[in-house]
Design goal:
mainly alpha; Histone, subunit A; two-stranded antiparallel sheet; flat
Length: 98
Protein backbone atom coordinates (compact mmCIF):
# COMPACT_ATOMS: atom_id res chain seq x y z
CA UNK A 1 0.00 0.00 0.00
CA UNK A 2 1.28 3.42 -0.85
CA UNK A 3 1.89 5.60 2.15
CA UNK A 4 -0.91 8.16 2.62
CA UNK A 5 -3.01 6.73 -0.19
CA UNK A 6 -5.03 3.55 -0.50
CA UNK A 7 -6.73 2.36 -3.65
CA UNK A 8 -10.14 0.74 -4.03
CA UNK A 9 -8.33 -2.42 -5.16
CA UNK A 10 -6.44 -2.50 -1.85
CA UNK A 11 -9.69 -2.05 0.08
CA UNK A 12 -11.20 -4.92 -1.93
CA UNK A 13 -8.16 -7.10 -1.11
CA UNK A 14 -8.35 -6.23 2.60
CA UNK A 15 -12.08 -6.97 2.58
CA UNK A 16 -11.49 -10.37 0.99
CA UNK A 17 -8.84 -11.19 3.61
CA UNK A 18 -11.43 -10.32 6.27
CA UNK A 19 -13.98 -12.47 4.39
CA UNK A 20 -16.21 -9.46 3.72
CA UNK A 21 -18.19 -9.16 0.51
CA UNK A 22 -18.30 -5.42 -0.17
CA UNK A 23 -20.29 -3.84 -2.97
CA UNK A 24 -18.73 -1.23 -5.26
CA UNK A 25 -20.46 1.65 -3.39
CA UNK A 26 -19.18 0.27 -0.07
CA UNK A 27 -15.63 0.01 -1.43
CA UNK A 28 -15.85 3.63 -2.63
CA UNK A 29 -17.21 4.69 0.78
CA UNK A 30 -14.58 2.84 2.82
CA UNK A 31 -11.54 3.78 0.69
CA UNK A 32 -11.17 7.36 2.02
CA UNK A 33 -12.14 6.23 5.54
CA UNK A 34 -9.42 3.56 5.59
CA UNK A 35 -6.93 6.04 4.11
CA UNK A 36 -7.71 8.46 6.95
CA UNK A 37 -7.19 5.71 9.53
CA UNK A 38 -3.85 4.73 7.99
CA UNK A 39 -2.75 8.40 7.93
CA UNK A 40 -3.69 8.74 11.61
CA UNK A 41 -1.70 5.65 12.57
CA UNK A 42 1.21 7.16 10.64
CA UNK A 43 0.94 10.31 12.77
CA UNK A 44 1.06 8.19 15.93
CA UNK A 45 4.38 6.69 14.85
CA UNK A 46 5.88 10.20 14.92
CA UNK A 47 5.04 10.65 18.63
CA UNK A 48 8.07 10.42 20.89
CA UNK A 49 7.88 7.52 23.30
CA UNK A 50 8.89 8.04 26.90
CA UNK A 51 9.67 5.38 29.47
CA UNK A 52 7.38 5.32 32.49
CA UNK A 53 8.95 6.53 35.72
CA UNK A 54 10.53 3.80 37.83
CA UNK A 55 9.10 3.68 41.36
CA UNK A 56 11.66 4.51 44.04
CA UNK A 57 10.08 2.37 46.73
CA UNK A 58 10.30 -1.40 46.63
CA UNK A 59 7.26 -3.03 45.09
CA UNK A 60 5.65 -5.66 47.29
CA UNK A 61 3.45 -8.51 46.20
CA UNK A 62 -0.21 -8.06 47.04
CA UNK A 63 -1.03 -11.70 46.34
CA UNK A 64 -2.35 -13.76 49.18
CA UNK A 65 -0.86 -17.09 50.16
CA UNK A 66 -2.43 -20.32 49.00
CA UNK A 67 -4.62 -22.00 51.57
CA UNK A 68 -5.91 -25.55 51.39
CA UNK A 69 -9.67 -25.85 51.82
CA UNK A 70 -11.81 -28.97 51.80
CA UNK A 71 -13.34 -29.71 48.40
CA UNK A 72 -15.99 -32.00 46.97
CA UNK A 73 -15.29 -35.66 46.51
CA UNK A 74 -15.73 -37.09 43.03
CA UNK A 75 -18.83 -38.94 44.19
CA UNK A 76 -20.33 -35.76 45.64
CA UNK A 77 -19.55 -33.65 42.56
CA UNK A 78 -20.76 -36.25 40.06
CA UNK A 79 -23.81 -37.12 42.17
CA UNK A 80 -25.84 -34.17 40.86
CA UNK A 81 -25.04 -34.89 37.20
CA UNK A 82 -27.63 -36.48 34.95
CA UNK A 83 -24.96 -38.40 33.05
CA UNK A 84 -21.52 -39.68 34.09
CA UNK A 85 -19.07 -42.22 32.82
CA UNK A 86 -15.89 -43.51 34.53
CA UNK A 87 -15.81 -40.63 37.06
CA UNK A 88 -16.31 -37.95 34.37
CA UNK A 89 -19.24 -35.71 33.46
CA UNK A 90 -20.85 -36.60 30.13
CA UNK A 91 -22.05 -33.60 28.11
CA UNK A 92 -23.00 -32.78 24.54
CA UNK A 93 -20.10 -31.69 22.32
CA UNK A 94 -19.37 -27.97 22.64
CA UNK A 95 -16.60 -27.68 20.03
CA UNK A 96 -17.55 -27.09 16.41
CA UNK A 97 -15.02 -28.40 13.88
CA UNK A 98 -15.86 -25.89 11.13
Amino acid sequence: MAQGKITPEEVKKIASLAKLNLSAPEINKFTPQLAAIIDYVGQLSAVEEKSPPIPKEEVQSVSRTDEVHPSLTSKSALGQSSSTQKNYFVTKAVIDND
